[in-house]
Specification:
With 129 residues, the protein is mainly alpha-helical. The chain is 71% helix and 0% strand. The protein has 5 helices and no strands. The relative contact order is 0.09.
């Protein structure tokens, strides 16, 4: 069992609520990664603000910097969606290429189907008029 990446006790309630509001709008497979990344970014932003503010005010300023949870969820969703889209496109390309290669090597006429492409063209060119 892996430990929880977020030490819930160390975070103010407002930050916990914000993290939950952002991650519940995302697909389940990326929630923990987004929560960890967002927590780290918020914490760093809080540390940046803590130079001139109290810790509670620094957390509030960090949350304001990141905007509404809907906006943050949308931004993270776009970042984590591209790898999935690329994997899907690559799989479709590979399957299409494999299907094309199989179709070019099979003897379709033996199955009762017309052959496609240069094979037919070559046969037509070799016919004597």
């Amino acid at each position: 069992m892996t430990p929880d990446p977020l030490p819930e006790k160390a975070l103010p309630n407002e930050v916990q609520v914000y993290l939950q509001a952002v991650t519940r709008r995302l697909p389940g497979r990326v929630r923990s990664a987004v929560a960890a990344e967002l927590h780290a970014n918020l914490h760093q932003r809080m540390l940046d603000h803590s130079l001139g503010l109290s810790v509670a005010d620094a957390w509030a300023a960090a949350l304001r910097d990141f905007g509404p949870p809907q906006q943050a969820a949308q931004a993270f969703g776009q970042v984590y969606r591209w790898p999935q889209l690329l994997r899907t496109a690559l799989a479709a390309l590979l399957l299409g290429t494999a299907g094309y290669a199989a179709a070019r090597t099979l003897n379709w006429e033996a199955l009762g189907w017309r052959s496609a492409g240069p094979v037919q063209e070559t046969r037509q060119l070799n016919r004597v008029p």
